[in-house]
Design brief:
6-stranded mixed β-sheet; globular; about 375 residues; Archaeosine Trna-guanine Transglycosylase, Chain: A, domain 4; alpha/beta; 3 domains; Rossmann fold; Transcription Regulator spoIIAA
């Protein structure tokens, strides 16, 4: 599909103000007029009510988004997209992230609506943009030039379902299988970009999994809730802990067994919904990394109650002097709100708590654009309980 504009979009004063402040996503209700043949996914010229050029973007007309800006005062081209992806790769190389990383983190890398992860020589793309959907083969070709052996699409996310984009996944370019083995500071993980959750693995938690290890002593009893393929639990097991992992997914069970074998450790796996699990005994360290319990703003009150219930539950089972790693990946819950929930859970469970190491966040290959705060969705705390 062409990278040349097909028509023009005139935005109102609110839209103009957002664009001039560097915002990428312009609401459908801020569009005053379409000029020329404009269809969903087309590149369009964006102007203010006086006809002044503001930039170019994709005409989306999806959910509440009318236009996704890609340039301000410049013109869109495939060469420009290529340059932005190369710049993103150069930044990740400077981070010395090893053999897997997030290459493109949407607005933070000037490519709104696009997520790209690398696992060795496999690239996994997730799009929430009609414009990028229509040009996904162009993106795949750039990735091949950047070193990918194979490029896969994971366009089956909950976000796509919520905004009525078609759900699909599969190979776009290149050769070879969809799975590989990655190395995270000496801990090995099998990753399948077509079968796993999200793009195959939770790359955003890298720094927190590694940080966990300094809180683990040999012989500790560790509980890894919502374990998925064993990210936190495997790091604890490698340090000599006795690990129990809990997840309700068949795939998680299969993969955690495989990953334990890869690392020559043992993990006790319980296939259960954490909400329904009756937890007995005491643990030295508990990790709780649930899926987003607030998937949409209208479910915020219920989600906050769910976070409180979860954190109270785990504070009742961590031993005196033990540690909790608790997280939220919901963009609708702020750091301060999660902190308040943790404090309230401490009060409800009768525990004295200390928060260690400030606020935990996502790994640096998931940079945060302060103008688009949802790019910094992951937050967490290390809690010492007495």
């Amino acid at each position: 599909m062409s990278w040349h504009p097909t028509g023009e979009v005139i935005v109102d004063k609110r839209g103009t103000s957002l664009i001039l402040s560097g915002r990428f996503n312009i609401g459908l209700n801020m569009i005053k007029k379409l000029i020329g043949p404009v269809s969903r996914g087309d590149v369009v010229i964006v102007k203010d009510e006086n006809g002044e050029f503001l930039g170019e973007g994709f005409y989306e007309e999806i959910g509440s988004v009318g236009v996704r800006m890609l340039t301000f005062k410049d013109r869109i081209s495939l060469d420009l997209i290529d340059e932005r992806m190369k710049n993103a790769l150069d930044m990740r190389k400077r981070m010395k992230l090893g053999n897997y990383f997030r290459l493109v983190h949407s607005e933070s890398d000037l490519l709104p609506g696009l997520i790209i992860d690398f696992y060795n020589d496999i690239a996994s793309i997730t799009s929430t943009s009609v414009g990028f959907d229509a040009r996904i083969k162009d993106i795949a070709n750039i990735l091949i030039k950047l070193g990918a052996r194979a490029v896969f699409a994971r366009n089956d996310s909950r976000t796509r379902r919520q905004i009525d984009l078609p759900l699909w996944k599969g190979k776009i370019a290149g050769e070879g299988p969809s799975d590989t083995i990655i190395d995270e500071e000496g801990v090995l993980f099998h990753v399948d970009v077509l079968k796993g959750q999200k793009t195959g693995f939770f790359i955003d938690q890298r720094i927190n999994r590694i940080s966990l290890r300094r809180y683990i002593s040999k012989g500790d009893n560790v509980l890894d809730l919502f374990s998925y393929t064993g990210g936190f639990g495997l790091h604890a097991a490698v340090e000599g802990a006795n690990v129990t992992a809990v997840d309700e997914s068949d795939y998680a069970e299969e993969e955690i067994v495989r990953n334990a074998e890869l690392n020559k450790v043992k993990i006790n796996f319980i296939k259960r919904n954490v909400k329904e699990l009756k937890i007995e005994g005491e643990y030295d360290v508990v990790i709780a990394d649930p899926p987003a319990l607030i998937p949409s703003i209208d479910r915020k009150d219920a989600g906050k109650k769910a976070y409180l219930t979860l954190n109270t539950k785990i504070m009742n089972i961590v031993r005196k002097g033990g540690f909790i790693f608790t997280f939220s990946c919901s963009q609708f819950l702020s750091q301060e709100e999660l902190k308040g929930i943790v404090i309230k859970a401490g009060d409800k469970s009768g525990r004295n708590i200390k928060l260690l190491n400030g606020v935990l966040g996502q790994s640096p290959d998931h940079p945060v654009d302060p103008k688009h705060p949802w790019t910094g969705y992951l937050k967490g705390f290390i809690v010492n309980c007495t």
